[in-house]
Design a protein that fits this description.
With 504 residues, the protein is α+β, with helices and mostly antiparallel strands. The protein is built from 22 helices and 20 strands. The N and C termini lie far apart (80 Å). This is Response regulatory domain-containing protein.
């Protein structure tokens, strides 16, 4: 027997069918038509998992879940909403109240069984770390990401304390109902302290359950904090490919910092780094200064070195060359995409702090669609690849959207990087150039009629008079549209003139 499952649904047909199907799958299932009745029977049944509808009379599913989470005897029972409500707001509300998963009706039993198994697996993993004093462990064996998953899945309220092997306290994180609200690491506080603790690979942690009445200091979600920390740590690693020895002195090599660099790394943080450079700090002293977390300081220092804003002071004439990565797509984004694929996550990755709204949709870790402003699909994904900076936020939820992307991640990265590299200079040179059609050649060229891609782009040329306008309006990727334009130039069907700025 895989476990006891309690089903709550006001529709007896659905409830009894679920009970029958789960019993055949080797679960011991009990069905109740209301949340009130289920609350009375839970102490006797002691279920390993609860599945509940939302829209029910007398007590809806939200109220039912909330009452369970407020009672210490039932607070840790894994809970899944099975509902006909498909709106993202309903799903987020269910997860906010403490549900472990949200499955939309109608649902295939195999899919539901798979989601149930994952929820029970997470719960079993969390219980294996429980002790009379909650749980503890070694950072060399379990990273902060794993610890956060245990705290979140058990909706823990309390303090996570970090100590050295000698027993000295180095930091702490506070949680309320599984949500990260405050962190302290040395002199750092808030999200910056959390990123510093993520970088710790040695020492011990202990979780103490206790009431937490301190004000909320960190307002982003657990997932957003972990994604941002992972990005910073990944960017920090690139510093070690640029300079071999962190004990070297740094020197300023530029009068000013470009606005795009300030936007990516933060103006105040950059000025703190540059102030330490002026005081002749070594790279190691800058990273460990305590002005910001080590991952943050190392990532900014790497950014300044790549943009020739600071350099390495050397007494001889041998200048140290920085390695240029082959991929133009930012490393933190590649890391996030790989992480989502490896964990087979379903939901939406939104990248904030960019000029337009950008979202990537995933189903079981695979990219299925993307939005970049008004652009959709593969075209939008490659535009997301081409941009810099941003703040990632992943929201787990069922994805109800047309699947327009079928290729795997490896292909998308290789093809997208090729497009980004090719268009890097072409956009600057020709985006404002006007296009004119040569009508005398239209009838002479049979290839236009036999190739749908060329015909589609030519139709857009007739509607728009500028290269960038045609590229924006085209449903295919920017590079493929540009190649079609070049083909028609060679055939003599269209002509691309000089932009007004160049003529001036």
């Amino acid at each position: 027997m895989k476990g006891k499952v309690l089903i709550v649904d006001d529709d007896p047909k659905i409830g009894r069918l679920l009970k029958f199907k789960l019993s055949k799958a080797d679960y011991e299932a009990e069905y109740f038509s209301s949340g009130g009745e289920a609350l009375e029977k839970i102490p006797r049944i002691k279920p390993h998992l609860i599945i509940s509808d939302i829209e029910m009379p007398h007590m809806n599913g939200y109220d039912f879940c909330e009452q369970l989470r407020q009672d210490s005897r039932t607070a840790n029972i894994p809970f899944i909403f099975l509902s006909g409500r498909t709106d993202a707001s309903d799903q987020l509300e269910g997860l906010r109240l403490g549900a472990d998963d949200y499955v939309c009706k109608p649902v295939k039993i195999d899919f539901l069984l798979e989601r149930m198994a994952k929820v029970l697996e997470r719960a079993a993993r969390a219980k294996s770390f429980k002790s009379l004093a909650d749980f503890s462990g070694n950072l060399s064996q379990m990273n902060l990401n794993d610890v956060m998953q245990i705290v979140e899945s058990n909706h823990k309220t309390g303090e996570l304390e970090f100590t050295t092997s000698e027993g000295r306290t180095i930091g702490r994180i506070l949680f309320r109902k599984g949500n990260l609200i405050k962190a302290q690491f040395g002199v750092l506080e808030g999200a910056e302290a959390f990123y510093g603790l993520m970088d710790e690979e040695e020492g011990f942690f202990e979780f103490y359950g206790r009431p937490v009445n301190e004000p909320e200091q960190i307002t982003i979600t657990n997932m957003a904090a972990l994604l941002q920390g992972s990005r910073l740590i990944d960017e920090a690693k690139s510093l070690y490919t640029i300079i071999r020895d962190l004990n070297v002195l740094m020197v300023s090599t530029a009068i000013s910092v470009p606005p795009e660099v300030e936007d990516r790394s933060g103006k105040d943080r950059i000025h703190k780094i540059l102030a330490m450079v002026e005081k002749q700090f070594t790279a190691s002293e800058i990273i460990n200064s305590g002005k910001m977390s080590r991952p943050r300081a190392a990532s900014i220092l790497a950014e300044l070195l790549r943009n020739d804003i600071v350099g390495v002071f050397e007494e001889n004439d041998d200048t140290q060359k920085t390695e240029q990565p082959y991929l133009l797509i930012e490393e933190w984004l590649l890391k996030v995409l790989s992480n989502i694929e490896a964990r087979k996550m379903t939901g939406i990755l939104e990248i904030g702090r960019r000029r337009v709204r950008e979202r990537i949709f995933f189903n079981e870790g695979q990219i299925v669609n993307a939005f970049h402003g008004k652009a959709v699909g593969q075209k939008a994904l490659y535009r997301i690849f081409a941009e810099k900076g941003g703040a990632p936020r992943f929201t787990p939820m069922p994805v109800v959207i047309n699947y327009t992307i079928e290729q795997d991640l490896t292909y998308l990265i290789e093809d997208g990087n090729r497009e980004v590299k090719t268009l890097k200079n072409l956009r600057k040179m020709t985006s404002d150039n006007p296009i004119t059609i040569n009508p005398e050649n239209l009838e002479k060229v049979s290839r236009i009629k036999t190739r749908p891609g060329l015909k589609d782009v030519l139709t857009l040329v007739q509607q728009h008079g500028r290269v960038q306008d045609v590229i924006d309006a085209s449903p295919i990727t920017d590079l493929r549209t540009y190649n079609h334009l070049l083909t028609m130039v060679k055939l003599g069907v269209i002509s691309i003139g000089k932009s007004a700025s160049k003529e001036a």
